[in-house]
């Protein structure tokens, strides 16, 4: 009889990254358990809403190479799940081209696209207005359109990953919270609110709550949590459509002054389109403090930008919600990804991934975490993302 409390790999967190690990580990014959405190497909943590931005371009060359390595994995996932997950509606970045955020920088990203020979069109403010229907853009704004970018179907991805994990015999338990880990020379004891398990390796894919499990072991990651607004607006004109767009602007005294929006959703068209501010302000201390209600000032800032610059949208919100953005405290760092061997005693049995704008990397993150759990190494260059990489390495 198989022991129902003993596994090769236990994955803590069943969001997209945890499910990607569950699928890829079980597909390689690993006896795998994925645990999620809120249940699968929940929208209470770092994954809510229908779509995410897919892009190849990055200011940092190592991340740019990782997106190129991720694309074939998305194709494989799409083929196995028999559904399209990335919709190539294009990726339009514009604004003040020297503004530097942890999302990118237009001028520097264009230089890296030249180096890696990724096609794009460079556009002036007038051309952006003419092509995409924005108005009153400051004259010095410029940017680029990268046609291979677009939108990822979030719920389709989760369903695909869950289905594949299940198909390969992965054990999936929702509504069960991991309370503590005890790593030792042979593996890890995992204590939950229901029972105790034993695993050879543990993957921490629990996003905002990673420190709940690391801090008792003596290590705390520097992460910040922001409850960000998601806003759906009605379209005034059926014929006008957008690529994914992101406007980079100089920060104001009160916020980071960044906005983004999607065009018509290609997999479930509606008269609404989704937009959001990316305001890294007023961090909360803990995921459980998230209210699900956006800051009205943030919604107003977004809708007044839309009122001034996007005439084809009605700036009166039809729906609002929030999503928890989990970001490294140091804006030069994009993710925490690697073994915890130099972080906590017997951390060689613990792999962790947390924080950053990670949806576009979901199939790759699963592959890397499973590589690390099974062999301690990966062929992908993640040296700068290691949990113990120094600040100098991020420069
Ligand atoms: C507004 C917004 C816009 C974004 N836009 C983009 C984008 O355009 N492109 C992009 O690539 N990324 C984007 N991101 C980031 C992306 O959405 C996240 O990186 C990704 O969804 C996080 O997935 P995850 O699996 O790491 O974490 P989560 O989805 O947060 O999953 C973690 C899971 O762990 C579970 N959990 C926590 N603690 C425990 C415990 N102790 N025991 C058991 N289970 C536990 C939780 O219930 C949760 O289900 C955006 C994020 C936000 C907020």
Helix content: 10-25%
The unreliable regions are none
Count of DSSP H/I helices: 8
Order of H and E elements: EHEEHEEHEHEEHEEEEHEEEEHEEEH
Compute the separation of the termini in Å. 53 Å
CATH architecture of the largest domain: 3-Layer(bba) Sandwich
Can you say what the CATH homologous superfamily of the largest domain is? FAD/NAD(P)-binding domain
Overall shape: it is globular
Tell me about this structure.
With 395 residues, the protein is α+β, with helices and mostly antiparallel strands. It has 2 domains: 6-48 and 155-221 and 332-394, 3-Layer(bba) Sandwich (FAD/NAD(P)-binding domain), CATH 3.50.50; 91-147 and 223-328, D-Amino Acid Oxidase, subunit A, domain 2 (D-Amino Acid Oxidase, Chain A, domain 2). It has helices spanning 16-27, 61-81, 106-115, 125-132, 154-167, 210-214, 296-309, 362-375, and strands at residues 6-12, 32-36, 51-54, 86-87, 91-95, 121-124, 142-146, 150-153, 171-174, 178-183, 188-192, 196-204, 223-234, 244-248, 259-261, 272-277, 319-328, 336-339, 350-354. Strands 1, 2, 9, 10, 11, 12, 18 and 19 form an 8-stranded mixed beta sheet that branches. A hairpin with a 3-residue loop joins strand 11 and strand 12. The longest helix has 21 residues, at 61-81. It is globular. Flavin-adenine dinucleotide is lined by residues 12-18, 35-38, 42, 45-47, 52-53, 177-178, 205-209, 212, 228, 276, 323-325, 357-360.
